[in-house]
Amino acid sequence: MPPFDKHIFICCNRREPGHARGCCDPTGGEALQKAFKKALAERGLNRRIRANKSGCLDQCEKGPTVVVYPDTVWYGRVTEADVEEIVEQHIIGGRPVERLLMPE
Fold first, then answer.
1. Cα(79)–Cα(83) distance, integer angstroms
2. How far is residue 6's CA from residue 18's CA, in Å, rounded to a whole number?
3. d(CA 84, CA 29)
4. What pLDDT, in 10s, does the model give residues 64-74?
């Protein structure tokens, strides 16, 4: 299998309810990662773009966190409703979704 063009790392870290830093996947269902996998597969991109589960990306207060490599674009507060926009505008169109960019 050839290497992937991009990797989308989706934080699936879980912490106990009420943790001061928050939690990117409080239900433990990995729904956000599954939504990315589905969106990529529907467009036939799943052989070129990989949606990876990630452990803690140390941006818990800004989570759920998603990082796109090799672009080094960090997104914060991502929801399942944002997945289509990220895939269409950034992954396919090459333009990061400004409203979701994590401040530096």
1. 7
2. 34
3. 19
4. 999 999 999 99
Q: Is the dihedral of CA 33, 86, 90, 15 positive or negative?
A: negative
CB–CB of 75/100 below 8 Å? yes
- Write out the DSSP string of 26-92: TTSS-HHHHHHHHHHHHTT-TTTEEEEEES--S-GGG-S-EEEETTTEEE-S--GGGHHHIIIIIII
Amino acid, res. 71: D
- pTM equals 0.92
CA distances from 55 to 20, 95, 100 (A): 18, 26, 20
Q: How confident is the model at residue 78, as a pLDDT?
A: 97
62: tokens are 């800004």
Q: Are 54 and 66 in contact (CB under 8 A)?
A: no
| Other residues' Cβ atoms within 10 Å of the Cβ of residue 81 | 8
